[in-house]
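Can't paste images in this forum, so I'm doing it all in text. The chain is below; anyone willing to post the predicted structure tokens underneath?
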Amino acid sequence: MTKSPFVFWLDYGANAEGYWNYDRMVIQLEDCVDVLQVLYPHFDFAVLFDHSNGHDRLQPNGPKIGIRYGGEQPKMRSSKLDSEIYFGPYHDESYKLQKGDMQEMTFPMDAKDEDGPCYFPIQKRSAKRHDIKDR
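Text version of the structure:
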């Protein structure tokens, strides 16, 4: 073995070695498990990952989801929130969405009461809703 399978360095970017993705993650995990099984054959191992989209394998014909508000968006269906499982332990009646509501996955342009992205200040939400160019 010439290097540790537990550390992987790459020059990221479109013109370098690419980006960390599902395929790289699987190969590294297989290498790490092989080493651990040789060193500690009497142990079972649990590996934890976060749910970052960078670790997900997307279907080749699946929607490409942008990370910013606006622009071309995939067609996404609404979801009915029909169970308490969709809400965290601190959910209460003051929140906009409640059990039984339909959750929209896009910001409809014709909705007068739509808040827009929560990370925008109020003035920017209004400007984006009415196509006012940023200054």
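Strands lie at 79-80, 102-103. The two ends are 57 Å apart (CA to CA).
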